[in-house]
Amino acid sequence: MRRRVLILALILLAGLAWLGWDRYGPRPPAPQMAPEASRVDHILIEKSARRLTASLDGAVVMQTDIALGFAPDGDKLQEGDGKTPEGIFTVNRRNPQSAFHLSLGIDYPQPDDISRAQQYGIDPGGDIFIHGQPNEVVGLTLPGDWTAGCIAISNAEMAQLWSLTETGTTVEIRP
In this predicted model, what pLDDT tens digit does every residue of 53-99 receive, in sequence order? Predict the structure, then answer.
């Protein structure tokens, strides 16, 4: 009986160590950017179709399903509304150490968003990204719309998009 308890405790300890390493251990280096000929110059997000299309000179390079903010209908108005913003944006930062598997930041809020929010005395929000799955989720793609306003894709697709997208790429988000 003691032996079984000891074996069970060792198994439990090994499992906890693995979870701790997976969550807090060092992350692999970010994938290298693709060669110049393999870039995208436009990312189209179609909220109603739940689709991301990345293209170069109008030719589709990749297309994937997406998850949006938890209340995706309509344009983002304020922090915490669960909406994904709509409009024309630019990738303005790349974060390989994100809480999600890689992330490409977009330049929301725009001056019009800030002005509108000031009129209503609200915070327009910010930190909108295209990103992969949460780092704690291993081997899964979460179903449904679950972000706080970002655009989420699978980790494999995020690695591909990351390698194709440089800072300055246009991001168009349609209803």
Answer: 999 988 889 999 999 999 999 999 999 999 999 999 999 999 999 99
Helix (H) or strand (E) holding 154: none
- Strand 103-106 relative to strand 87-95, pairing: antiparallel
What is the distance between the alpha carbons of residues 84 and 67, in angstroms, rounded to a whole number?
10
User: 3 exposed, middle or buried (CB, 10 Å; 0-12, 13-18, 19+)?
Assistant: exposed
- Phi, psi at 161, each rounded to 5°: -60, -40
Report if pTM > 0.90.
no
Q: What is the DSSP letter of 36?
A: G
Contacts 24+ apart (CB under 8 A), 145-148: 145/67, 145/68, 145/69, 145/70, 145/71, 145/72, 146/67, 146/70, 147/67, 147/68, 147/69, 147/70, 147/84, 148/69, 148/70, 148/80, 148/82
pLDDT of residue 11: 83
In whole angstroms, give the CA distance from residue 19 to residue 58.
43
Q: Sort strands 129-131 and 103-106 into parallel, antiparallel or unpaired.
A: antiparallel
